[in-house]
Amino acid sequence: MKIIMLGAPGAGKGTQAKKIAGKYEIPHISTGDIFRANIKNGTELGKKAKTYMDQGLLVPDELVCDLVVDRVQQKDCERGYILDGFPRTIPQAESLDKALAELGESVDFAINVEVPDENIVNRMGGRRACVGCGATYHLAYAPTKTEGICDTCGKELILRDDDKPETVQKRLGVYHEQTQPLIAYYSKKGILKDVDGTMDMEAVFQAIVKILGA
Ligand code: ADP
Ligand code: AMP
User: Fold this and answer.
1) Ligand 1 neighbour 193 (Cβ under 6 A)
2) What CA dihedral angle connects 185, 123, 22 and 64, to 10 degrees?
3) Residue 32 near residue 198 (C-beta atoms within 8 A)
4) DSSP state, residue 149
5) 82 vs 14, 24, 31, 72, 212, CA distance in Å?
6) Is the peptide bond between 143 and the residue preceding it cis, with omega within 30 degrees of 0?
7) Rounded distance, CA 68 to CA 31, Å?
8) Is 65 exposed, middle or buried (0-12, 13-18, 19+ CB in 10 A)?
9) Residue 22 CB: number of other CB atoms within 10 A?
10) Measured between alpha carbons, how far is 46 from 25 in angstroms, rounded to an integer?
11) Distance CA 77, CA 180 (A)
12) Helix (H, G, I), strand (E, B) or coil at 158
């Protein structure tokens, strides 16, 4: 099963993608996580990506596409995968489709998690990320057992630089301009599935499971 998660930044793509990956035993591939790991490790890719991420801009397609096309051909992706944060532009979607077509494959579901902009600002302002393992929490909706400390690895939680209010507005603008057109793109292919992302996390998950089937 090959799944794409669509939605604004902060809509809950990562939250749901992790749960789906667990239930269906397929890898969760987040391009944002890949870039953050590269930044942490000080790689050339990380250095390049950071200059865009810090400004709330998208990393150029040429730095993203090959990386994902390589990743989805690894052995652990044989039974499928869930892509979170990719594609984010029409050229990225076209490049994925082209690479899959060459393998005789295609995307099965594009799950569009719908959340209005006014809720997004609240979601991202309250999001906290672990500096150690990258786990994501929310001050109000997904709190840790001990304030400021990751439940999984015990490291400190931070507000991501790109979750600061001024960058969130920029990222929302970028989303509407460059990523939202993917909704029509996947709708035309007949694989778009809309989900109300304003429900609580478990209800959103159940709605997605219903779409994907048991
Ligand atoms: P994305 O991957 O789309 O950027 P996340 O999954 O990181 O978004 O979610 C953004 C923030 O909102 C996180 O702090 C997360 O804990 C919280 N969140 C996710 N889904 C919901 C939900 N259904 N209701 C309330 N808060 C949510
Ligand atoms: P995310 O964790 O998905 O919110 O991504 C964080 C940031 O990483 C984005 O704001 C972009 O700067 C960059 N990024 C992640 N995925 C992509 C992508 N597919 N294309 C371009 N930039 C991306």
Assistant:
1) no
2) 50
3) no
4) B
5) 10, 10, 11, 10, 12
6) no
7) 8
8) buried
9) 10
10) 28
11) 26
12) strand
Distances 181 to 17, 34, 135 between C-alpha atoms, Å: 21, 24, 29
Please indicate whether residue 121, judged by its CB atom, sits closer than 6 Å to ligand 1: no
The candidate with the shortest Cα–Cα distance to 30, out of 183, 127, 134, is 134
pLDDT tens-digit profile, the chain (214 residues): 999 999 999 999 999 999 999 999 999 999 999 999 999 999 999 999 999 999 999 999 999 999 999 999 999 999 999 999 999 999 999 999 999 999 999 999 999 999 999 999 999 999 999 999 989 999 999 999 999 999 999 999 999 989 999 899 999 999 999 999 999 999 999 999 999 999 999 999 999 999 999 6
Pocket-forming residues, ligand 2, beta carbon under 6 Å: 9, 31-32, 35, 52-53, 57-59, 64, 85-86, 88, 92, 162, 171
